[in-house]
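BUG: 3D viewer hangs when loading the predicted structure for this chain

Environment: internal workstation, default settings.
Expected: structure renders.
Actual: progress bar stalls at 90%.

Input used:
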Amino acid sequence: MATATADTATATTDTPSLHDRLVALAAAYHHTELELAELLAAMQRTRGFAARGYGTLGAYAEKELKLDARKARTLALVGRKAPELPAFREAFARGDLSWTQARALMKVLTPEVEEAWVARAAEITVNTLERLVAAGSRGQLPPDPSDELPPSRTCIRFGIDAQDADVVRAAIELVRTRTGLSRDEVDDGAILAELARHVLATDETGAAPTGERFRVVLQTCPDCAHTTGVDAEVDETHVGHACCDAEVMDVRPGPTQGHLSRTIPPTTRRLALHRDGYCCQVPGCTNRLYLDLHHLAYFARGGGHHLDNLITLCSLHHRVLHAGDLAVDPLRDGRVEFRFKHGRVAHIRLGERATRRSCGAPLQAVIGSPPSTPPAESASRTVEPPNRPLA
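Structure tokens produced before the viewer hung:
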């Protein structure tokens, strides 16, 4: 009995010391995590992982550091951006922000809004923070709680057999191989949605998969000009993406109420798709899964629907373009310049892919104009491909 009392007294005496040690270790841990983030950023910048025989930073981190690849990529991003964001850096170093919160905030933080977002993140759960970030855009302040609409992004969870999960991952990786898009540019959810759209658009009802996929109804505040969807937030990326190839109905009160802005005429659409070989025109992309037409001079800024102002992009590269991570500019003589997020520049000539595949017949013969001389009865006939993506 005396022994038990002595042990209890010792534990009580040591409790403040134990607490102090834990506080000190936690503080050291958070500072170490920031240092780890900065070192991972340096490893990624210098491609030091390649010198050790690894293809990616994630693979290096998993094998050499026993660190989850996703967390390693997030920490590298934090380490790269932290010097530009002092309030965020200080909060991360104190442990006020977890790495999952930091991952979400990276999508919206700029020096002008970082303090507001860091303060807001301290008040809400990670899931709520992710929803707010998904509904916002880079450089935008967090919404007032009373003004929040359902976000433009959501999370879907479902169970799946391990074998089926491998099939889904393989399909997503196939699309990444065709497009060359990394996870930093387009997430897996966006690719899964495009695969679902392909299934819906190629069912037996005959819906054209390269037809208009959007009907955009915009609500605009007359005082602040803030634009949203009817039931949820709509970010600028999706509005720009949709308006390129959609029907836009104005529901604002006034003389234009109910006015429907027609999208690209069907004849022009067919010509543009045929000219581009029914394939995304981004150099290195072979995706034919789902195609959009993009206005080189933006339709929202007065660009017309004429053929020379249109280029075929897969829906994923179209999304990346309107997100600001890809630039496409027309040059002289039908050439187009692509400028990529990481500095690469490439050029193509509109229609060169279709030209490489053709048998040399003149374009007017392909689209059905009468030939200058009657063809022989046994001559092969060129048939315009259907207005749908090819397998």
